[in-house]
Please model this.
Amino acid sequence: MSGPLAGLRVLELCDEPGQFAGKLIADLGADVLKIEPPGGSTARTVGPFVKDRPGPDRSLNFWYHNTNKRSAVLDLEGSEDDRALLRSLAACADVLIEDRAPGALATIGLAPDALRAANPALIVCSITPFGQTGPWANWKSSDMVGLALGGPMMMNGYDPEDAPGAPPIRGHGDQGYNTTGQFAVHGILAALIHRDRTGEGQLIDCSMHEALACTTEVGMPYWLYARQDVVRQTGRHAAAQRTEPWLFRAKDGRHLILYGVGRDNESWKRLKPWWQAHGFGMQFDEPRFDTPLARQPGRGSPEAAEIMAEMGRFIAATDADEVYRGGQERDQAWGIVRAPDETLQDPHFHDRGHFVPVTGEGIDEPALMPGAPYIFSATPWELRLPAPRLGEHTAAVRAAGGAWPEIEPS
Model:
């Protein structure tokens, strides 16, 4: 085993809301044993599926969110023997991650407090929509509802000229669940440090509602301090007042995001000759464009509006890759809006070994999925195991008789 969390034993009782937390820890080297009900986690029913054929072992979404885990099927609702087995596993585990409704484990004799009484070093992280307490504790939610009630959805949308009357827009990709999973892992790692110091585990109450309220960027501060709501904008930050567009269509039909044009004098001196060589921005030599504050988008100056409008004309006459690379060569944070296939073709990702091959039911040769989001010098990230088949390790768990099952040689 490798990774900074190698040797850590983790039980995961999670479907969609909590599975990303288990993945992050498993990818760091922990031995994560995913306990699934008969029929499997509901996350196995989420597409897309290999060759569009649903099946418990064919969900590409599940493959990504469950790398480096093992799977055992236990009937915790209907079998006291299986509940006893779970208690035995918890007695020798370091961490338990669960995303059931508040009190649900207690109703079947698996209350976190009781599990910790048998293993005081155990860290239990409970991931729920609204937390374990409070008037909403038992209310239902989803990734979309979480993004709405937490606030991020209110800040995503379009300019009126792009989509008149458009409502708030959900950011896709399980952002609500995955943001919550990130915060859950932060809590678990902090609790592990505390346990290393004191020998004491603890309960972590992780609320998606609260995790998402922490990620509303400027929206919350504007309301807290100025009692002002921000407005939604196309392809850029929500703001208290409408700002100049940053999203432009290039000559070849692709879109680019331009951030921070002309914020400093040095980059402005490099940008002007480039544009002017193509016949654009000839007026930018006028003294009124000399001050960085006048050029900075978002401040409402006529110079900033004029600069961004001229950029739109320049980009419309230029291919996207030329604009992207030309801007970067002049120290500008500019980028092309990419489709998935373009991202997969990016040599920078491949030079760093970011994409990793995975195997699974229904594919003839390995497919690629995103790998390490960080590179460790001493404890390398490793794809040790693809997402497990449903119940792939049940026999090993039962054969261990309540002891932590040994990892099967790969």
